[in-house]
Specification:
This protein is of the alpha+beta class. It has a domain at 85-170: T-fold (Orthogonal Bundle). The protein has helices at 56-77, 85-92, 100-115, 125-135, 147-154, 183-197, 287-296, 302-308, and strands at residues 11-12, 34-42, 45-53, 94-96, 163-164, 168-170, 203-206, 210-213, 222-227, 235-241, 245-249, 277-284, 314-321, 326-330. The strands form three sheets. The protein has an eight-stranded antiparallel beta sheet, with helices on one face. It has a three-stranded antiparallel beta sheet with strand order 1-9-10, with no helix packed on it. Helix 1 runs antiparallel to helix 6 (183-197) and helix 6 runs antiparallel to helix 7. The chain is globular and about 60 Å long. It starts with 10 loop residues before the first strand and ends with a strand. Residues 1-22 and 24-29 have low confidence and may be disordered.
Length: 331
């Protein structure tokens, strides 16, 4: 493919992950608890867990159980696994007797779509298919897909076209769903739920989005570094979090062309690509909301974002605008 492809991964969260870092705490070391880390891939992104437990063997068992749960959910939501439930849905337009998690996640997707006036829309997959196909050509037009092609793709987009029920999920012929803007957060939340049910009080989980369970074992916050969009390896800002989730979206995360004019964040209104911000970072009590809203906020003015914060369960937003100027919004 022509251009630059890199995953939408800007929040640097764990020393176990190459190119990512959990910023060190200045607090005292915690005695008695073993730290067990895991690193792999989930839903096409780097995934990590850091569990603190007095029994290393038990910590390793919990990591295995968490990975098994994450893999189970990945088989539902992945666009990369040819036998996933989502791939089947996009192929046939119907899921009969769908998994409860698929019903829940698509229902939450529609709720976020309604709250954001359609700026979060799980049915933008036809736009991805269009741009990916266009820039995969040997000599693609650098101006991007033709306006007529964009209009044709937009005619297949619209979250209200999904009919979601516990016994059946249906969409019209030609429509297609992507859960890449929300599934990683949802899987992170489900893993956190599992670990909490097993008595874990201090952990950092990232199944594509980051969520802390409690504080560090020493009582200090987890220091989450937000990567500079323009300088590899540089931390632009630090967010101290306890029992919160963090997600970052940015137009530079996956670029179709070398100049970065066309990226993976699609505006469901116009079929164009995000350009207001270099990155948008959200902090919430849950990773599902943080994930979905970091995407939707990429198309909103700061004033509009501020007006929505209390309604969409987002506590803080860190913006880096197109000129590289940072700002913070607080609910």
């Amino acid at each position: 493919m022509t251009g630059i492809i890199s995953r939408r991964r800007f929040v640097r969260i764990s020393a176990a992950a190459a190119g990512l870092s959990l910023l060190p705490s200045r607090g005292p070391a915690h005695a008695g608890a073993a730290r067990v880390t895991w690193r792999g891939t989930m839903l096409g992104a780097i995934a990590t867990m850091e569990i603190h437990h007095e029994d290393r063997t038990e910590a390793e068992r919990l990591i295995s159980a968490a990975c098994a749960e994450a893999r189970r959910l990945e088989r539902l939501f992945s666009l990369y696994l040819p036998d996933s439930a989502l791939v089947e849905f996009n192929r046939t337009g119907v899921l009969v007797d769908p998994a409860a998690e698929m019903v829940e996640l698509l229902s939450r997707s529609q709720r976020y779509a309604e709250l954001t006036g359609g700026l979060f829309d799980p049915t933008v997959q036809p736009l991805w298919q269009l741009y990916s196909s266009h820039f995969s050509q040997e000599h693609p037009d650098p101006a991007g897909p033709a306006p007529a092609a964009i209009e044709a793709a937009l005619a297949r987009v619209g979250y209200s076209r999904l009919t979601i029920g516990r016994d059946r999920i249906v969409m019209p012929h030609g429509a297609a769903v992507t859960l890449n803007g929300i599934a990683q957060g949802y899987v992170t939340d489900k893993v956190v739920d599992l670990l909490r049910s097993e008595g874990i009080d201090h952990s950092l989980v990232d199944m594509g989005e980051t969520r802390a369970i409690g504080s560090r074992p020493d009582g200090h916050p987890w220091n989450i570094g937000i990567a500079d969009p323009d300088v590899a390896g540089r931390t632009e800002a630090v967010l101290p979090i306890i029992d919160r989730a963090v997600s970052t979206s940015g137009a530079y995360g996956l670029r179709f062309d070398p100049d970065g004019r066309f990226n993976h964040l699609f505006d469901p209104r116009t079929g164009g690509c995000a350009s207001l911000y270099r990155s948008v970072t959200t902090v919430s009590r849950n990773a599902t909301a943080a994930d979905a809203l970091s995407t939707a906020f990429s198309f909103m003015s700061a004033d509009r974002i501020s007006s929505l914060l209390a309604r969409v369960d987002i506590e803080r937003v860190h913006l880096i605008d197109a000129a590289g100027t940072p700002s913070d919004l607080v609910a």
